[in-house]
Amino acid sequence: MRNIAIGQAGGPTPVLNASLAGFIRASTESCIHLVLNGYQGLAEGRLHVMSADDYRIIEEHCEIPGAVLGSGRYPLTPQRMLQALEHLQQANIGTLVFIGGDGTMLALHQLSKLAASIGYDLQVIGIPKTVDNDLTATDHAPGFASAAKYVATSVRDISRDLEAMKNFEQVRILETMGRNSGWLAAASGFFKKQASDPPHHILIPEQRYTWDQIISGIGETLRQYGYAVVVVSEGVEVEGDQVEHGIVQGRQVLGGISKRIEHHVQSSFGVMARAELLGMQQRSSSLAVSQIDYMEAIQVGEVAAKWVTSGQTGVMVSIQRENDREYQISYQSCPLEKVAHGGERLLPAAFIQDPDRYKRWLRPLLGSDLKEYPAALNRSYLDAEKQIKP
Amino acid sequence: MRNIAIGQAGGPTPVLNASLAGFIRASTESCIHLVLNGYQGLAEGRLHVMSADDYRIIEEHCEIPGAVLGSGRYPLTPQRMLQALEHLQQANIGTLVFIGGDGTMLALHQLSKLAASIGYDLQVIGIPKTVDNDLTATDHAPGFASAAKYVATSVRDISRDLEAMKNFEQVRILETMGRNSGWLAAASGFFKKQASDPPHHILIPEQRYTWDQIISGIGETLRQYGYAVVVVSEGVEVEGDQVEHGIVQGRQVLGGISKRIEHHVQSSFGVMARAELLGMQQRSSSLAVSQIDYMEAIQVGEVAAKWVTSGQTGVMVSIQRENDREYQISYQSCPLEKVAHGGERLLPAAFIQDPDRYKRWLRPLLGSDLKEYPAALNRSYLDAEKQIKP
């Protein structure tokens, strides 16, 4: 009889706990150890046998954002990995499962290799999560759809507000998550139908920009529509510079590019500009959970539980789209090695060049309950007046 | 036959359009003029007779944030007021209705007095809206409940995220709207049950603080729980200083106190702190609309339409609570003069001293569909470990 250990690592999502609940419900093994506080808890031996009470609490958290086991970031040095393996062996763990993103999968892969090298027969399975969709080898991962829904609806709503207030405030610059990839920032264009609809400019890390380009583009929008909504991914480089919020444990925390754009816009045009981060709600808002995201989050957990029994190891659960016309997915196994060395998943050039194609890809993930807003009356009348006096 | 003119002014809310729709549905007058872009539109004569198409578009906007007529901020000088009255007289307007906050009500009151002084018999009615609940002479106004729901749920969700990540990031400082009043910031404590629950510190403009107090308080929380969530109203003064984002048309735009606290926390404790504005979503998020807010927004519009017929003038629709035990309100008329000179409505001392009392007041406004989150497992285990080794 071999025990299972499961933990959560990296930044939480609104559906990270759903994957844990899915795994635990579908698990047929009687003895599950919970790893508290991610890889740090693993290295420090914070493993607890799941009690009936714990099971109930995890169930209660199925729809709650955050990480019920505690998560975190923790660089796993070789020394710490050996400690982790010792703790696992002491608890007679035969299977280690972690829910996380690319860093988590890399660490799982390394643990798996190290275990093999010391003759410890450890089954290892990864359950994917992300908010910025940078995890490779999967069409998308749980967490992204809810974050994208939050970004799309917030930018639409904030734009409505600005459009009504343009005699007072003319430019809003909204900063999204996305260190290397523009999936989230580009999702802000989901409701855009024509050039005059906000957001007018979406800046993503996949592309290079100069200050001149950015500022003259915003100036042109101001002249045409009297206001401008700009969305920028935190990882965007302008003239080779990225804006850093700070460095924590050797990890660069990005943030602040929107504030720089605000400054340039104000000094170039003398208008009122406001930079705002879309913030931590992107990875935590219970208000924006996409139903399909929630269901898939549970399902990746269930699939991992089945794989424990069927004996798969060194793999991550990956979501593949079966069909371009209607939304249909399958769960496939992907070697952790491929995930670990696949690099970050960037927004494909086809989606950058053809935003409608990206929107078609995105639509099923966001859900069918999203409302398109008709144009406001002040805009219709303005357009009519322009047509009368060209 | 006298015509009605209606406009929207000031910062939008998620339910500002609901009040307009409520008014228009309940109006028995056949000829309604729409004032585009608030008081600026009024001074510039941007009045349009509502067509059947316009009616349909306003109906379609009933659940949409922003201001379908266009809104804005515009200082009404005596000169501009006279222009506005001229345009109204030309269109044979007998009734002027505006939906807005305290500035809007003051302007309506002045217009009403000026009209009387030139012998123009103009009926004037105000429909209230607010997000920060600073409008006097009403228990609350439409817009506040949805903003408070957004703040309460966002702070709860962001806190869950931080609690799971405290080995990486220790302090979050979340800045709310509220120039002079702490209603919104205090709403962030809605889900708090005990001292250890976040938010650990709520700073409101009604109270005075020193940097020493703020920083030593956060330090104590860090020592006790390993992380700290701080909520601060944009209008908070520390040692006599308020943080300004800029000045637009003579109006001070606040913002940035959270960033200063971040700086002090980082330099005092060397921890990772992150300041974020809860942002424009407070007054625009379609995700956080409170059902009761939406209904009341429609009703204040309907009441104003009835008053047009019954001939009330120089008044604002005010919401009064009839009962402390169960939620029951009535709509009363309040003289615009009283609203205009009543000053800003601050959070009462009784609510500051007894947060539970404020929560009881707030509960019916936020709605009954809000979920309390149970404690996460990592916290329960941490508490248990502390009890074992005190």
List the helices and strands and how they pair.
Two copies of one chain form a homodimer.
Chain A: E1 3-8, H1 16-26, E2 32-35, H2 38-43, E3 47-49, H3 52-60, H4 78-90, E4 93-100, H5 102-117, E5 123-128, H6 144-164, E6 171-176, H7 183-187, E7 201-203, H8 211-225, E8 228-233, E9 244-248, E10 251-254, H9 257-269, E11 273-277, H10 291-310, E12 315-321, E13 329-335, H11 336-341, H12 349-353, H13 355-366, H14 377-388
Parallel strand pairs in A: 1-2, 1-4, 4-5, 5-12, 6-8, 6-11, 7-8
Antiparallel strand pairs in A: 2-3, 9-10, 12-13
A few lines on this structure:
With 390 residues, chain A is of the alpha/beta class.
Write a structural description.
Chain A has 14 helices and 13 strands. With 390 residues, chain A is an alpha/beta fold. In chain A, the strands form three sheets. A seven-stranded mixed β-sheet of chain A has the order 3-2-1-4-5-12-13, sandwiched between helices. A four-stranded parallel β-sheet of chain A has the order 7-8-6-11, with helices on both faces. In chain A, strand 1, helix 1 (16-26) and strand 2 (32-35) form a beta-alpha-beta unit. The longest helix of chain A has 21 residues, at 144-164. Chain A is elongated, with a radius of gyration of 23 Å. At the A-B interface, helix 2, helix 3, helix 6, strand 9 and strand 11 of A face helix 3, helix 6, strand 9, strand 11 and helix 14 of B.
The radius of gyration computed from the alpha-carbon positions of chain A, rounded to a whole number of angstroms, is 23 Å
Average pLDDT score of chain A: 94
Give the CA-based shape of chain A.
elongated
Structural class of chain A: alpha/beta
Residues in β-strands, percent of chain A: 15-25%
Number of helical segments with 4 or more residues of chain A: 14
Distance N to C terminus of chain A: 81 Å
Tally of strands of chain A? 13
Low-confidence stretches of chain A are none
Main sheet strand line-up of chain A: 3-2-1-4-5-12-13
Work out the oligomeric state of the chains in this entry. Answer: homodimer
Share of helix of chain A, binned: 40-55%
| Largest contact between chains | A-B, 77 and 76 residues
SSE arrangement of chain A, N to C = EHEHEHHEHEHEHEHEEEHEHEEHHHH
Biggest sheet statistics of chain A: 7 strands, mixed
